[in-house]
Structures are given as C-alpha cells and as structure tokens.
Specification:
The protein is α+β, with helices and mostly antiparallel strands. Helix content is about 40%, strand content about 20%. Helix 5 crosses helix 11. The radius of gyration is 31 Å and the shape is elongated.
Length: about 425
C-alpha cells in the first residue's frame, strides 16, 4: 500500500496519478482517506495537547500544595482530562482502522512510462521476436478435464523439464533457489496482494487461517515479512518454484479444456527485494531473463507494456510476454513482470537500514520465469509438424533424458513392426550350419 506520510506530503500528485486508472471509485476512496486522516491527525494533536495540559496542571497542583494554597479546582480540572483523552483515543482507533482499510484498497502509483489506455486493447507492443507459423493441429495431444489434467510419459517429462530449465537458468544468473510453503496465513498473504480483489480467485482452507498460494510471489514476499534488512544484503534475488492453486479457469471456447487457465499448475517465479534506486533497472533485467528463457524454447513472442486501464492494483509498471498461438492465430500471455515499488513492502513492513538512525521501505519486483502449462501449450502448438510429431527444443533435451521428439500414440502404432522370430525358431537358426559357397 502507499505510505501515508508520502500521501500527506503529496496529495495532489497522488490524486493525479490515481486518476490515470480511470476509476471514480478509487478517487472517492482517496478523498475519503484524506478526510479520515485529517480527522485522525486533528484528534492526535488534541490528545497530545491534553497530555501536555495534564502534566502542566500536575506541576501547578504540586506548586500550590507546597505553598499551602487551595488546589481542589485544579484537581477537578486534572481529573477531567483522562476521560477526554480516553474518548479521543477510542475515536482515533476507529479512524485508524478505517484509514488502513482505505489505504489497502488504493492501488499503487503508476510509473510515467505506463501507457494510458482503457483496457488490454490499448497495451503497447514494445517488440516482437520469432517467426510465426500455422502447423496442422489435428493430431495434437488432448488433455481432458476442466481445470485439472493428467500428463504421462514425454509430456510429463517436458512439463518437469520446463521448470528445471528455468531454475538452472536463474541459479546460473545468481538467483537463490527457494521452494516456499504453499499455504500462507491471511496477514502475510495480505502483504503481497489485495485480498478483497483476490479472495474470489484463491482458495481458503475452511476453518483455518490459511490460504493456498496462487503464485510463489506470495510466499517469497512473506519471506522477509516485518523485517529490517541490511542495505549490504540488497538486492536479494530469489527463484521460487511452487505448485499454485486458483479458482479461475478458462470458461470460453478452446481454453475450457486446455492448458491456459487451470486450478493447479507449476510455475517458477523471479522475485527481488532491492533499494528504490535500483528497481527500474532490475525490472528490465527480469524482463531480459524471461525473454532469454522464451528464446531458448524457440517460441515466437512479443513484449507488451500494459496500459493504465489494464494494470493491476499492486504494480507500478507491468510487462507481459505473449507467445504466439498458431491454433488461434493470435498471441496469448505466458509471462507477467511487475515492479511493485514500495507497495508490497509497506503492507508487509519490510524495510532496509540506510544508517543507524534511518530506515526506508524496500522495493519488490516479481516476474514469471516459466508457467509450465502455458509454456507446454506454446511448445505443442509451435513445434508440431504436420504429421503430429512435436520437436523438443534443444534447451529442454538435457532435462528430458535425451528425448528429442514426442510421437503421438496413433503414429507409434502405425510404425512398421520388425518381425521377431520365436524362441524355438531362433534356436534352430543358431544351430543351422552356414552354407558352403
């Protein structure tokens, strides 16, 4: 969330930035926040003055007693102050809760490079990579079931290989590999996302204060929950692998039974804690990593700068990588890369020490390295020949026991079988003497 101190000091700048999101509700909440905060600060000033007055009167009573003068009037005045303080503090607590609720519901400030637009149709394409193709998809491997799937043999190997490939790539780039918990309590989870927005998307364990994570980003953000980091530690680069759980699935057309939106899927996530002055160059670094991973899979893709009307609550700027779908004749999202600036850190209480007396909130960034099912779909579509055989990208072959191609079962059955002699016949052949020339 936004730092209330920054909001107080820059109300016009913050309001102008929030207006880019073209949502009247956000501006109304912001105006309410300013009003609530103003009343809270007024009461705080009143309470501080009452406490100061109480101390002053106490000293006056003490002086009067020493002088042998009447003190009852001052005593009565002093006795009235605690009740005034108590009622003011009660109202301050109410206002503080309301202020926090409003702050949590206000999105992050957008970076100046985020394109203005009403929805995804106005996202800006930055670059395109790879040659587009339209192979025959009649003999593609079909996965049945809504939101879940079984994978066998080479496809199961390939899905595992995708994660291993991304993990090895990131570890070589200096990232620390982490397998985080798949369950989080509400408070740490709220540090990573706006639960009012995501509660309909992620699963809650009934009767417990636990939620299943929707991405490793949630757990990795909580890794340093309410900590003060040493500036020499930064940046902290993490590569998190997790199985993720989401209620949302594809509901239309081909994606209803496919590998696009699923209830359960594996993903490798890049996550960074850094100093504010380093976050924008690190955002570009995470994008470069993701692009190189996709290029290694030999997949055509484009990079998109997500516009103001399509960006989520938490990000200050967001890139999407979209791979080409020959089946649909369009690009589809496979990677999401966000610079969240200090928004998650403020919610999570994560700071770094600038000096012995000065601390500041870190910046956090998250970026997909591989979302296995989406990458698998892109490979099946882009590397399939007309006969249905799928070429395994060279980058994956070391993680697939050397498998170089995936042959559909119906083609495997069509392969000519070399006749094998029976054991009895083989025995006769071994006994037979060679013919003389």
């Amino acid at each position: 969330m936004l730092d209330i101190s920054f909001v107080r000091q820059n109300p016009l700048e913050v309001r102008s930035n929030l207006a880019k999101r073209q949502d009247k509700g956000i501006l109304e909440r912001f105006d309410s926040l300013l009003s609530v905060d103003k009343e809270w600060r007024s009461l705080k000033q009143k309470v501080d003055e009452l406490r100061s007055m109480r101390n002053l009167i106490s000293k006056e009573i003490e002086a009067l007693v020493k002088q042998g003068k009447a003190t009852q009037e001052k005593i009565n005045e002093a006795r009235a102050i605690p009740e005034q303080i108590k009622s003011s503090e009660a109202r301050m607590r109410e206002l503080d809760e309301k202020r926090l609720s409003l702050l949590m519901a206000i999105p992050n400030l957008l970076h100046e490079s985020v394109p203005f637009g009403k929805d995804e149709t106005e996202n800006k394409v930055i670059r395109v990579w790879g040659k587009l193709s339209k192979p025959d998809f009649e003999k593609a491997v079909k996965i049945s079931g809504e939101g879940f799937y079984f994978l066998k043999n080479e496809l199961a190997l390939m899905e595992q290989a995708l994660s291993q490939y991304a993990i090895h790539y990131l570890v070589k780039k200096g990232f620390t590999f982490v397998k985080p918990p798949f369950l989080l309590r509400r408070k740490p989870l709220s540090g990573a996302l706006d639960l009012s927005e995501f509660e309909s998307v992620i699963y809650k364990i009934e009767g417990e204060d636990h939620y299943l994570i929707g991405t490793a980003e949630h757990s990795l953000n909580a890794l340093h929950f309410e900590e003060i980091l040493d500036s020499n530690q930064l940046p902290l680069l993490y590569a998190g692998f997790s199985t993720n759980f989401r209620k949302e699935i594809g509901k239309h057309g081909l994606d209803e039974r496919g590998l696009f939106r699923l209830h359960q899927f594996d993903k490798v996530e890049q996550f960074v804690f850094c100093k504010p002055e380093d976050s924008w160059k690190l955002h570009e670094r995470l994008l470069k990593n993701a692009e190189e991973i996709v290029q290694g899979l030999e997949l055509p893709y484009r990079v998109v700068n997500v516009c103001t009307g399509d960006i989520g609550t938490v990000a200050a700027k967001k890139y999407d990588i979209e791979c080409w779908s020959p089946r649909e004749g369009k690009y589809f999202e496979t990677h999401s890369l966000s610079n969240c600036t200090s928004y998650q850190a403020v919610r999570s209480g994560i700071k770094y020490r600038i000096s012995q007396t000065e601390k500041a909130f870190v910046h956090t960034l998250n970026a997909t390295a591989i979302a296995a099912p989406r990458a698998l779909r892109a490979i099946l579509e882009n590397h399939q020949f007309k006969d249905g055989i799928v070429k395994v990208p060279k980058a994956l072959q070391p993680f697939m026991l050397g498998v170089k191609e995936i042959v559909p079962l119906d083609l495997q059955k069509q392969k000519p079988q070399i006749p094998q002699p029976s054991k009895k016949h083989a025995h006769k052949l071994l006994k037979r003497k060679p013919r003389r020339k």
